[in-house]
Amino acid sequence: MHQGIMKAWLESSHLNGANSTYVEEMYEAYQVDPQSVTEDWRVVFDNLPLVNGTSKDVPEAAHSKVRDYFRSLALEGRQKGSPKVTDHEVDAKQVKVLQLINAHRFRGHQNANLDPLDIWKRDKVSELDPAFHGLDSDDMQRQFNTGSFAHGGETMKLEDLVKALKTTYCGSIGAEYMHITDTDEKRWIQQRLEPSLGAANYSKADKTRILEGLNAAEGMEKYLGAKFPGAKRFSLEGGDALVPMMREIIYRAGDAGTKEVVIGMAHRGRLNVLVNILGKKPSELFDEFAGKHSDINGSGDVKYHQGFSSDFETPGGNVHLALAFNPSHLEIVNPVVMGSVRARLDRRGCDTGRQVMPITIHGDSAITGQGIVQETFNMSQTRAFRVGGSIRIVVNNQVGFTTNLTEDVRSTEYCTDIAKMVQAPIFHVNADDPEAVAFVAQLAVDYRNEFKRDVVIDLVCYRRHGHNEADEPSATQPLMYAKIKKHPTPRKIYADRLIAENTLGSDEVTAMVNDYRDALDGGDCVVKEWRPMTLHSVDWSPYIGAEWDDSYDAKLPIDRVKHLAEKISYVPESHKLQSRVAKIYKDRLAMASGEKLLDWGFAETLAYASILEDNKRIRITGQDSGRGTFFHRHAVLHNQNDATAYMPLRNIADEQGPIDITDSVLSEASVLAFEYGYATAEPVGLTLWEAQFGDFANCAQVVIDQFLSSGEQKWGRLCGLTMLLPHGYEGQGPEHSSARLERFLQLCANHNMQVCVPSTPAQVYHMLRRQVVRPMRRPLVVMSPKSLLRHPLAVSSMEELAEGSFQNIIGEIDELNASKVDRVVFCSGKVYFELLERRRKEGLENVALIRVEQLYPFPHEEAAAALAEYSHVKDFVWCQEEPQNQGAWYCSQHHFWSVIPAGAQLSYAGREASAAPACGYPALHAQQQESLINSALKL
Predict the structure, then answer these.
(1) Distance (Å, rounded) from C-alpha 281 to C-alpha 270?
(2) Which helix (H) or strand (E) holds 225?
(3) Cβ-contact 340, 681 below 8 angstroms
(4) Torsion-angle region of residue 652: left (phi > 0), alpha (psi -120 to 50) or beta?
(5) Residue 66: CB partners within 8 Å, gap ≥ 6?
(6) What mean pLDDT do residues 907-913 have?
(7) Measured between alpha carbons, how far is 34 from 25 in angstroms, rounded to an integer?
(8) CATH number of the domain at 811-937, please?
(9) pLDDT over 90 for what percent of the chain?
(10) Residue 525 · residue 279 · CB < 8 Å
(11) What is the DSSP letter of 84?
(12) Does the domain at residues 558-803 carry the CATH identifier 3.40.50.12470?
């Protein structure tokens, strides 16, 4: 401890050994919140010796050790002649006051007035009672130091302090933030809550705007209920404050420089948000209720799944709003929204998140019940997926469909407790207090922009009707709905409040209601801030209406390909590579110089280089995407001396497209959904997700089913996302063999996506380039290889890359006499090379092998051309490694039948049907593989 501080400490009248209990209590208060003690105490505690020489970030020593430390210093002081100080000279109650303040900061939310229905019965928190801390009625008129409590000056009368604490922390707002470890964040929140006692001083114009939002929310629902009785609309009634909340968030965001807001939400209140926030014309919504629809291609979707885009005027400028389309798997839209936001931020070159803000709106049961929420929180601060924080709103109905809140919905106190995993502040707010709602909305935007972290608003409300309007909620929640029937609406409560305080007259309130109803009758936009949409995002016009067309120009001059090959093979001498990686790059130098044929990893990387040189963006994520799960890519090189990373693909040209290759969080659903969202907002470049093993796509099946395969059909949303799914039977068991090809093929219709099984380096090169060069933007699903990555026959020449194009069908490559061929075998993937090697070994000349590289859309014309010289053949076989009930056999055989000659027969060669994707025993695997090869070749 510094000598000057030591001297001050020893000479202080209240810092002697006789008062160790007082000192320890002060130290406890300091450990909870350094700002809760006065500056002189902070100087003392800040200069305590470090624990075992470590930093102050490490938890402090046990209190007994601290106490002994103070006693030793006090003894030293007495030995030097310092006067002894007695207990009566110390006001120990000052510490108790500081503890009372901290108790409200920690636990005030547990006794806050949050439930509009007052049926949420909570135990009294004893720590919030002054008596718990030994403070009695005699102390109420005494002045106490308020520490860091930011209201009323350095000292306050205890009576006034208690009232201020109750107003701030136990009123309509329950603030949970003391779980945050960062002191600056906690102090920032305190400085926003405590000076104003958790409220804002709103003007008449502000209050009128809030009431207008409630009028709109209630008026919309009542209008729909009267016009379309019994129709499902997932009414917002009870949670009406969501509308003014959203308006305040957008206004605040616009003031802070936000240019775009992307919103994801489930069903409840969606129609209300569409009309009253985004400005969808009521007449269009009414037509949808009446069963009308526009003449568009596709299946369409129900009203409460629809998205929308518009511009919203704020004093800080127009803000572009985009409401994401979403399916009934409610929370899965969250990572989709984050991906869309990240794409927009990347395009704007904004790394702070300020220019684009995500808002996700949740149900109370869904946010705590669906694991995708945890996954999305987990990725929120990671390198590849951060978006500068999100605002998460919970429309907390206090019931899940028919499931009781307290007993069956969750195991935690709040539905929002999941957010504590990322130390997000949580602001619970009573939805019947719209001014508190507006205050929290503004606070949330400011926090998100200040700290670039997630923030949660728990809008505690109720659901006036059942889960949907066809339900009868009193059948399962009789007491709750008996209260709801008697409870006035949020609009009436607030209107009466404004009339009582003479802010508005009753005639003004009535006129506002009538004006809004008249606007609905008119059918035009009812959002006065709505503005005609200008170009806020990328131009999609080159891609709209683009159909399947392989006539694009894919060729590159060979000199350019060779130049790129040299660039991606160069590694600075100072960057020491691991020995196996060094061997890979030595081989790549040989490939670049023409000494060796190209392997898979080199051709794939060349495809990326050519795209980047055209100034297009590439984004690749996956659990091992930097090196590739099977040690083939090595696009990110780690220095063995200092662990720095070098990416040759970032160093191919002075001006090139950006590339990000990131090993993702250990998640499939959230990451794939994020990349889908990214690709729907960024069509220009190449967005890829790579599964560690193809089987793991199982965990993201909802994304595949409800977004990738059907998003265009349902919502008209184009998406060029590429999925690389390692697939191939190598004897590695049921969960490391199959990417479940059959599932993708079952989802194929209406030319909704591409399913490819490339078999050579040249094919993967052209396939990836085609995904960018061709203007069509539809998902590409790739059954990518494992053993073919280093297979001696799976190689290509530089000329094949420069001069070729992707071949949907590859015909027979050996010089067979077509007239002698009496069997043609169709196949895809690595089994082709096993068939080829075995045929050559056996010297067979009567079996031709045809590779189907694109299974969907099936290339009928190219298949017919490949089979032209075999029109005499009657024996055709489809050979696959997968069990008969899996793979391509059941889903694609009608395509094979359509291209074989009339009168010919088609048979199956492969494993027998199986419940599991593959066997787990290597010997059995080898036996099955041998059998299917023999069957295909008639051996």
Answers:
(1) 14
(2) helix 204-227
(3) yes
(4) alpha
(5) 24, 27, 48, 60
(6) 95
(7) 13
(8) 3.40.50.11610
(9) 71
(10) yes
(11) P
(12) yes
661-708 pLDDT, tens digit each: 999 999 999 999 999 999 999 999 999 999 998 888 999 999 999 999
- Cβ pair 663, 626 in contact under 8 A: yes
Same fold? 204-531, 558-803: yes
Buried b / exposed e along 795-833 (16+ C-beta atoms within 10 A): bbebebbbebbbbbbbbbeeebeeeebebbbbbbbbbbb
Side chain identity at residue 188, one-letter code = W
Average pLDDT, stretch 809-825?
95
Rounded CA gap, 282 and 13, in Å?
Answer: 73
Rounded Cα gap, residues 550 and 391, in angstroms: 44
Query: Helices 889-899 and 860-867 sit at what angle, rounded to 10 degrees?
Result: 60
The HSE-up count of residue 117 (CA atoms within 13 Å, CB side) is: 22
Residue found under tokens 């503004």: 442
Cα separation, 333 vs 548, in Å, equals: 29
For CA atoms 555, 558, 560, 565, give the dihedral sign: positive
Q: How far apart are the C-alpha atoms of 457 and 483, rounded to whole Å?
A: 25
CATH number for the domain whose boundaries are 204-531: 3.40.50.970
Supply the pLDDT for residue 544.
Answer: 87
| Mean pLDDT for the stretch of residues 711-715 | 89
Task: Give me the pLDDT at residue 297, please.
Answer: 59
- What's the pLDDT at 910? 95
- CATH superfamily, domain at 98-172: TPP helical domain (1.10.287.1150)
Q: What is the mean pLDDT of the chain?
A: 88
Length of the chain equals 939
Sequence-distant (≥ 6) Cβ neighbours of residue 388 within 8 angstroms? 345, 352, 353, 354, 356, 357, 448, 449, 452
Rounded CA separation 855/859 (Å): 8
Q: Which of 95-99, 502-506, 690-694, 901-905 comes out lowest in average pLDDT?
A: 690-694
Kindly report, residue by residue over 259-271, the tens digit of the pLDDT: 999 999 888 888 8
- In the chain, where the domains are located: 3-89, 98-172, 204-531, 558-803, 811-937
DSSP letter assigned to residue 919: -
**Is the distance from CB of 509 to CB of 211 less than 8 angstroms?**
yes
User: Quick count: other Cβ atoms within 10 Å of Cβ 555?
Assistant: 14
284-298, 720-734, 746-760: range with lowest mean pLDDT:
284-298
Pair of tokens at residue 131:
């008596």
Rounded mean pLDDT, 451-477: 84
DSSP letters for 735-772: TSS---HHHHHHT--TT--EEE---SHHHHHHHHHHHH
Quick one: tokens of 293?
Answer: 């629809």
Distance CA 739, CA 733 (A): 13
